[in-house]
Amino acid sequence: MLKLFIGNKNYSSWSMRPWVLLKQTGIPFEEVMVRFDSFAADSRFKTTLQGVSPTGKVPVLQDGDLLVWDTLAIAEYLAERYADKLLWPASSERRAVGRSICAEMHSGFTALRSACPMNIEAHLPDVGALIWRDKPAVRADVQRLHSMWEGLLAQYGGPFLLGDFSIADAYYAPVCTRLQTYGLPLSGTVSGYVQRVLSAPGVQAWVAEALGEKDFLDFEEPYRLQR
Question: What is the count of structural domains for the chain?
Answer without folding.
Answer: 2
